[in-house]
Amino acid sequence: MFLYSKCAHVYDAHKLFDEMHVRDTISFNTIISGCFKKELFSVGFEYFKLMYGSSGWEFVNVSKMIHTLVVVNGYERETTVANALITAYFCCGCSGFGRQVFVETSERNVVTWTAMISGLAQN
Length: 123
Description:
This protein is mainly α. The protein is about 70% helix and about 0% strand. The protein contains eight helices and no strands.
């Protein structure tokens, strides 16, 4: 799986990951980093959620950690990353953080607006 991810064969890495009976931190980190290298931020974020078990209050710290990594690595201007963060914050009940990311997003698209509206409707 590492070689598939390293060589940008993310589809093959996903297929292998999905067939694994036992997944550990190393396999999750490998698939997530492969997604990020190919700029598949939403897919990588879904694997983060899968790794930590669910959405909800226990996912708040993971969302904040990811948000911090996004800012530290300079991805805060990526609309797809902002969309994933907005969705994550609303999924775990942190509407204030979701709104903050929305306000700070300079290039909003249909997905950004849908994430915001859906999040407000659910909370």
